[in-house]
Amino acid sequence: MKIGLACHATLGGSGVIAAELGHALARNGHAVHFFCADAPPRLDAGAENVTLHRVESPVHALFPGGEYALALASKLAQVSASAGLDVLHVHYAM
Fold it and tell me: For the residues 29-48, what does the mean pLDDT come to?
């Protein structure tokens, strides 16, 4: 399967669980695509069957902190269409 995992790039549950889950899936032959602002600390982005898609939040006068949710949704849609992802796992904290 081709699986997309959206997570935060932190040592918290989102980044840790996503990295461990993704690596286990990749070891079983699944193509795993990670979506986050930066690589979570436990993610080996060079591992076989693992691809990291960095999500950059554009800064705008109305959104000085960036609009991460919109940037994430756009990246998920773009990669889902181009890579033919079968399923997306998005952590509840997203």
Answer: 94
